[in-house]
Amino acid sequence: MKQLVLLGGGYGNMRVLLRLLPNQLPNDVEITLIDRTPYHCLKTEYYALASGTISDQEVRVSFPEHERLNMKYGNVTKIDTKKKHVLLEDGSFVDYDDLVIGLGCEDKYHNVPGADEYTHSIQSISKARATYEKLSNLPSGSVVGVVGAGLSGIELASELRESRSDLTIKLFDRGERILPAFPVRLSNYVQKWFDANNVEIVSNSNITKVEPNKLFNHEETIPVDVCVWTAGIQPVEVVRSLPAEKDASNRIVLTQYHNLPADEHVYVVGDCASLPFAPSAQLSEEQAEQIVKVLLMRWKGEQLPAQMPKISLKGFMGSLGKKHGFAYLGDRTITGRIARLMKSGVLWMYKYHNG
């Protein structure tokens, strides 16, 4: 019996499961999914969990069930591609014939002193829970600094404003305008929402050091009661230590078939994969679709296509609290309540089709 091992139950490997099960998995293949938690987590909603506007249960989706799907829970500590097994924190190991690495990412601190020690995170469900506990217990009038004004930072700051109107919120952005890669209209809309809702955007910021209750922006010292870091990500350490070619962001370089150049049995999906797009749930799912097709063809002994189709993304959507949002779809900017309803609808559809 061939063993397909999936590392991580994120968006990519969840899509692999849902495409292979229940009917496409060959009779001579078993799947083992290794994850830290007994459910799929909606990482795109961790900002709301940390802010306290949704419950823990709302970011969970059950994994599918199948007689040839085995679940194993634990932390992966090493991937040995020569011995073709995965070592877990408890000392056990799992052998594989084919492996899909989808272990996700963690915060990247850019060598800023104190950032890893004195900031909070939303990069895992356990860290988002801890951030929620810290933020929800703040006394009225406390100052929260959010470092990084990408999509995660914007959604966290806006959701926290709706959750805690009594807090002072500062969002630190390295650029001159927020979301500089997108049209000015979109940036202006987000800026005006923050202005109207009393969230301060600190533009052209450069956080050089973090100390307890202090942020150092250039030469200025800014008092904060809590700091949440959303200023960059990198693959988890077990992937960074894998002996494979990596790009400048430490993501694994792959063939067009999404496997290691030197090993056609090891695939990488999601935040750990070097692709010409920023990491996202949508990208992970599109990549997983192709991985499933490649796996099925290889298992059947069929010849792979000379050229895989290019991955095409539809765009992105973001929220500003529960009533407002923004989207960039097919070179079209959408703002306001319609954009927020669109995002809520996409989330509902995902839960409906995956839960």
From TrEMBL:
Residues 3-281 form the FAD/NAD(P)-binding domain. Keywords: FAD, Flavoprotein, Oxidoreductase. The keyword Metal-binding does not apply. Gene3D superfamilies: 3.50.50.100. SUPFAM superfamilies: FAD/NAD(P)-binding domain. The keyword Ribonucleoprotein does not apply. GO terms for biological process: aerobic electron transport chain. Pfam families: Pyr_redox_2. InterPro entries: FAD/NAD-bd_sf, FAD/NAD-binding_dom, NADH-Q_oxidoreductase. One of its GO terms (molecular function) is NAD(P)H dehydrogenase (quinone) activity. Its cofactor is FAD. Belongs to the NADH dehydrogenase family. This is NADH dehydrogenase. It comes from Jeotgalibacillus campisalis. The lineage of its organism: Bacteria, Bacillati, Bacillota, Bacilli, Bacillales.
